[in-house]
Every structure is written in C-alpha cells, then in structure tokens.
Amino acid sequence: MQSHGHHEEVIEDSNPTDNSEFNALLVKRRSFLKGGAGLTAAAFFGSFPLSSFARTEEVGVNLARPTSLKFSAVPHYTGDDMLVAEGYRAELILPMGTPIVDGVEDWRDDRMVLGESFKYRMGDNHDGMWFFGLNNHGYDPKHSERGLLAMNHEYTNPNLNPIENYTKDDPLAEKIYQKRRLASDVRREIHAHGVSVVEVKRTPTGYEMVKNSPFNKRYTSGTPTKLSGVAKGSEFVKTKIDPQGLTSIGINNQCGAGLSPWGTYLTTEENFLNVFARGADKTVIGDKNDKRASRYGLKENTIGDDAYAWHTPTDGEAHEFEVWDATAKAESVLATDDHRNNFNTFGYITEIDPFAPKSQAVKRTSLGRFAHENCAFVPPKQGEQLVFYMGDDARGEYIYKFVSDAKWSNIDIGGGLKAGDKYLDKGALYVAVFHEDGTGEWRELSKENPALADFTSDAEIAVFARLAADKVGATKMDRPEWVSVSPITREVYVTLTNNSRRKEEEVNAANPRSYDGKGNQHGHIIRFAETDGQTGGRFRWDIYLFASPFDKAEQNLSKLTADNDLSSPDGLFFDPRGVLWIQTDDGAYTSRTNCMLLAALPNKIGDGRSLTTSVGKETHMGAVATPDTLRRFFVGPQGCEVTGITMTPDCKALFINIQHPEGRFGAVAGGQTPRSGTVVITKKDGGVILGESLM
Ligand code: FEO
Ligand code: CA
Ligand code: CA
Ligand code: CA
Questions:
Q1: Statement: residue 269 has pLDDT above 90
Q2: pLDDT at residue 440 above 90?
Q3: In angstroms, rounded to a whole number, what is the distance separating the alpha carbons of residues 134 and 132?
Q4: Domains and CATH numbers, the chain
Q5: DSSP 115
Q6: If I label 579, which of 78, 237, 343, 597 is the partner at 20 to 30 A Cα–Cα?
Q7: What is this structure's pTM?
C-alpha cells in the first residue's frame, strides 16, 4: 500500500542487514540472447495445453499478440472520474459494501451498517483478483460468459466506519498501545478484510454479479483457516486458540493474487503486521523471540498501524479482541498461554477453492512467511516440477521462488485443494541474489543449506523466512510488488515499486537509482530468465523498464514520453497473449497524473544495453520504450491506486480495481463516500481488447 487517504503511510522497513548490496562475485558475463520480433505464445509452446489459457481455436476469436499498440494514448489526468482509451467502455461494479446475498440491507452512505454484515458484503479496498470460467459442471478455463470472480480486500479505510467514531480518540490513553476502539467498528473492519467470491455473468455492457449464487462467499479476518505444509503443527504456530497449531483465526491484508495451475485462487497476506500489537514483552529485547517479531516489524510497545488497534475494544465478548495482541505476557508459562504466536499464523500464500464454497481457506506455509504481494507460476509442463515466484513487499526485502517436489500432471486441473496439498505443501524455497554482472542465483532456504545451521527445522526457516534469507545473503530490493511470467518467453517480471530509503551509497546493479535524497522515487521493473532450467539455481537479469516522469532527464532512462510515462509500478499481469499490463500505486507523480494502467509489448532479456546511472552504478537495461511497445490505456480517479487485474479467457473483458479513490468518485458508486470498486473494461464494438476493430 502507498500513502493515501486517512491512513498514514505504513511501509515496513524491518530489514537491518547490510545484505548485498554488493554481491561482488564476478561471474563472466554471458552473452545475452537477442530477441526476435513478433513473438507469440504459440511460437514457443506450440499446441501445448496451458491450463489457464485458451487458444484461438477454442474461443473462436483471434488471440494472437498484437504486433504494436495502436490505441490513442490516454493523457495525464487528475480529475475525479476515470479515462479509458477511445473505443472502450469502463463500467464500475461491486463497490465496497455491496450485499452479495439477499436479506442484507443495502450499503448506507452514513456507514451505519452492522459490522457483522460484511460477512455478506463486498469488503473494502479491492485488490488482486481472478476470473474463473464457470460452466454447468464447474471450472472451465475456456469459458467467458459466466465465471467466478475471486477478489481480495486488502485493508480498511477509516471512512468505512461512522464518521463520529473515527474522529474520537480515548483521552485516557497515555500510550498508543492503550488507545481504545469500539467493538462495532473493529468487527466491521475485521469482516471488511479478506476475500470475496462472487458469480458474475456477461451483460451487453460488461458483467454483473449473480446475487445469491451458491458460490458467493466471504472469507474474512474472522474466518478460521487451515494451516498446511511444513510449519503446520510446529511450535511456532501453536496458539492459545489452537494449541495443536493446525489453524489460524482468519486471513488478513490480501494484496496481489493469482491462479494456481489446477484452477484455485492463490491469495496473499501482505501487511498483516498492521492489525497486530505488542506491549511490554516478557522476552528480553534482542533475544530470539524479540528478533523474530521485530524482523516482521512488530517491535515492543507498538501497534503495526495504530489506526487499527484491533486488540483494544473493551465492549466486546470476553477475549474477542485479545487475539490481536501478540505480547509475550509476563504471567505466561507457555507460549500458548497468550496470543504471541497468532502473529506467526499470518503472512502466507493462502489457497481458496472458489468452486467449493463449503471448504476452508488453506495457508500454504511451505512457501514461506513474509509480506506476500502475489504468487505467479510458470506455465507447467507435463511431468516437470512446478515453479512459483513471489515478492516480499517492504523496503529492502527479497524475491523468492518455490519449486514443488511433485511433478505436474494435467489430470490435476480442477483438482481443487487436494491438488494444492500435492504441489504446495512439499517443495524447496529459494531466495534471489542479483549479481552486478547481470547474472543471479537462487539460494536454498532449508536445513540442506549449511548457512542455516542455526535454524532448528525447516518449519522455523519457513515461518521466519526473512531471517533465513538474511543469512544466505539475499539481495535487498526496492520493494518487490507483483510478479508475472511471460507466457511467450517464460521470463519473470517483477515490479520494484519504489524505495525512499535507498541511499546513493547503497545502490546495486539491480536497484541502481537514488535521487535527490529521496531514494528510488519512481521504481522500476526487473526481469530474469532461468539459465539452468526453470527449477535450476541460476538466472540472468536486466531491467525491463525504469519508471520516471518524461521530463526528468536524469531519471528517464527508458526514454518515456507524456504518452507512456509512469511512476511506482505495482500491479503486473501478462495476459494470455503475452501483452503485459502495468498498474501504478503512486504518490510521487500525482501532481501531474492519477494512477494508471498501461499496456506493453516486451521483447526479451538482452534486447537493450549496459548503462551507468547518474549515481555511477553500471547496470543492464532492456530496450527503451517506444509508443508501439508501451502506451497508457487507462487513468483512474484522484487518490486511487489502480490494482488487481484479470481477463476473461476470450480477452474481451479486462477487470481492474480502483482502490481507495477520493474526491467525487463516491457519486459514481452511489452516495458521497468514495468507495473502492471493480471496473470492467470492454471494447464498445464487442471485440477483443487490443484486437483489430470488427468494423
Ligand atoms: Fe499491497 Fe505491496 O501492495
Ligand atoms: Ca504499492
Ligand atoms: Ca494498496
Ligand atoms: Ca501492491
């Protein structure tokens, strides 16, 4: 999340290591492959059946990647509405508070709806999402007319609550840790987090929800969730609520999202720190327990974000809110005598089967615990292990990779959470090291790695993955946000949104910019290609794009213009054709333009050159952008972040989310309160997005 609205900007910065800014191991630079023009997914994969992607002959429309971008670029914009490229329509659906079943009163602009009612309404701050085709039998990755939309609700804005409540603070509270909030408001926030699953169907102008569909369901921060994988039942996740360590009390801070190769939803837990508090602790500052909590941002006598303070209501049920207080209490004999370990049950890739509304969400602990942005897989090949990539979004955090033990079988498509048990519970976790010379390597986070001799078990390594990654010398990145894998080249793209703390003397080749004492203000997109096979230990990388205002010459290394300049790239999505969609969550360029969505046609690693940034760091950059390969497609309303992106299999509808809009955008959704919502973008002539006109 970026600074916005009423919440303070709380971007975690808990990495005290001096890890690698200089992984100065000099490896002879390999000559990069030169990319070719006009690449298509089919050219690389032929008729290989990609589980998530339809092919032209299956959906009856042309799904070739466009050879160049031809729509008229959307200009910079700072108003309260949204702008989309000419010939397209943008329709708002599912604003925050929308009831998803009958029997729940409509959203009220005075925000007086009961907190518990959010178990049956769209939550707040829509973020990552995925469209799952639905036919009469269930999951159908080729079906577009009808589908299930699974959607994250990242966090809550104070304007979710009645206005008189959020302006009050307890005058008796001397320390922030002691502030008091109302049970009704905290319940509203607990249930406005999480995930919504709603059935949607195509209309003449876009899509609409099927209210009361048996698939419609909310998962919230109060919905019991299973723990699975390496840390399940380990001492680190045994809690007062569940001394067996098999469950978590809910899901929280769902940020980016993705699909699994078998057709379930992979949601994430990012800034879960915000809703926890830690008071005067019995553990000694600097001891193992303190280091573990602090490395995840939870220092003694703090609240992750004091706007939440979920542990504070005194007008709730007995013990209802103390679960959010992770203090190791002086009177506790065992860790399970208080709620300290609840904190360790958050921070996971979490799997939901949208087609099985009676099932529980499952936290896949083997993929490591950190501030997960999203999780992207490489198009699977029959008989090969699966590979997933993930970013940890906080300043100076790392990029990770998970390789399943199990080998892929197409039989598992539609296999639900059982397939998840097979592929996500056993495997190897790695963290990325980016060398100066354009190569990189994956270092294993397991007991197999002698550098991790201090860790007692693989469970400890997974639950405290950041501490393990510190030990093996991972490279500190400029806030890794979304990851997406090109279906054409299998290269992996990661947005590094910005990093205000990147000092000039701390730049490295993979994070080579720092300006005006403000660090890497505008961010960049890095990409890498595995060189020892997808499951192997080595890769090469370059920087696909440097974000910058077009008129800041020193920073504008990718030669952006007013038609395609951007700042703080965040959401990232390769559509089935290999078009790359880039979204922004920006606070550094909003004087000139609101956040946006751009379309891009990247080539491949090595299509650019080496250069030296103005702070004297040599790096490896991709080809500069041109209007044919990068263009602004959409600009959102003032104050918003444009995030979350998915497309129907026929590429005729693109769904994006408008998060925390301000100004008069509320009127668009009905009422005065500006509300987050989903925008469905379709072509007015009914054609394929970015396809040739049917006229
Ligand atoms: Fe929730 Fe890193 O964005
Ligand atoms: Ca962001
Ligand atoms: Ca956000
Ligand atoms: Ca994000």
A1: yes
A2: yes
A3: 6
A4: 41-661+670-683 (2.120.10.30)
A5: G
A6: 78
A7: 0.93
